[in-house]
Amino acid sequence: MLPRMATPSRVFLVTGGAGFIGSHVVERVLALGDAAVVVDNFSTGRRENLAHLAGHDRFRLVEANVVDGLWAAVKPAVEHLGPATHLVHLAAQTSVVSSVQNPVDDVRINYGATVHALEYARHNGVQKVVFASSAATYGDETEMPIAEARASAPVSPYGINKLGSELFLHYYRQVHGLPTTALRFFNVYGPRQDPRSPYSGVISVFVDRAVRGLPLTIFGDGTQTRDFVFVEDVVRAILAACEQSGAPGPYNVGTGRPTSITDLAKAIVAATGSASPIQHAPSRAGEIVHSYANVDAARMALGFRAEVALEEGLARTQSSLAPDPSPATSAAS
Predict the structure, then answer these.
(1) For residue range 245-289, what is the model confidence (pLDDT) as tens digits?
(2) Quick one: pLDDT at residue 43?
(3) For residues 64 and 124, what is the distance between their CA atoms, to the nearest angstrom?
(4) Cβ–Cβ under 8 Å, residues 272 and 127
(5) Cα(46)–Cα(324) distance, rounded to whole angstroms?
């Protein structure tokens, strides 16, 4: 067994830490001088997202599935680095379509894993749990911008299980005194979002296709709007929540600014200097037309405000793309 290192002041246990958002969280944690234990089963996370951290003395990577529990999996890592002080629960099945096709799996992964994470935190003295929830908890909300006080009416198993997980956070906070915060992410984008993944967002798909000169396909007329928030801003919101012993949320994490899909496509074509045509396909049944966040609560409770403008975020996303001969084939809306 490796000798136990001098215990850092904070040890972050990050589930899903090899994923798009999680790998950025881990980088920031280490940059702050803290330690990070990543738990990931690599169903969607990628080893290359963390390859540059191999050998870091304050970093441990554990290949495991949260739905099987955390105790045995992370025991060697926390024995070496010290007990987890913070738990950032990002591990999830993130496809709404998959949740509709297989709701039982979605319950097991997105609901059951949250309870496993909370149980670990309760029994091991974790000081704060931050949970990645979703704007999908709101359902077909029509009044914009969307505020947290609105009644939640999710229209997919994914949204239902995120909302159910939020209720479990409330239970553990009220009954067991475990400090928790739920953050409702809007449309997160940035480097390491895999454009060839079925879970990918519209920006990573569009950027990938634009740099290849391939058509950008919009479902519907393109007037639908979304709130696109850069991953670096999302990381700042997560760490701001970790600093608070209170502030349970839920809090929206977005920019508070709507962007139409047509404007997005045009901005990506301009940013990449691409000749890609913009084309349209029929609207998809059940698609939400407009969605953007009221961000007042996060600003007041966490001191959080998104700082990266869309143009800057697109440029940074484009510059991070590695050459790959296989283009992203998904059209997006």
Answers:
(1) 889 999 999 999 999 999 999 999 999 999 999 999 998 766 778
(2) 92
(3) 18
(4) no
(5) 16
Residue 224 in tokens = 């639908």
The model's pLDDT over 92-118, given as tens digits with 9 standing for 90+, comes to 988 888 899 999 999 999 999 999 999
Please report the sign of the dihedral spanned by the C-alpha atoms of residue 192, residue 195, residue 197, residue 199.
Answer: positive
* C-beta of residue 158 within 8 angstroms of C-beta of residue 93: yes
Are residue 201 and residue 286 in the same domain, yes or no?
yes
Q: Are residues 155 and 35 in the same domain?
A: yes
Where in the sequence is the domain holding 108, given as residue range(s)?
11-188+230-253
CA 113 to chain centre: 15
Task: List Cβ neighbours of 200 (8 Å cut-off, separation of 6 or more).
Answer: 193, 194, 328, 330
Q: Are residues 130 and 223 both part of a single domain?
A: no
Mean pLDDT computed over every residue of the chain: 91
Distance CA 295, CA 148 (A): 9
∠ CA 259-263-268, nearest 5°, is 110
Active centre residues (catalytic)? 158
Query: Could you read off the pLDDT of 14-62 as tens digits, one per residue?
Result: 999 999 999 999 999 999 999 999 999 999 999 999 999 999 999 999 9
* Whether residue 240 sits in one domain with residue 216: no
Residues 202 and 57 in one domain: no
DSSP 33: T
Residue 6 inside a domain? The answer is: no
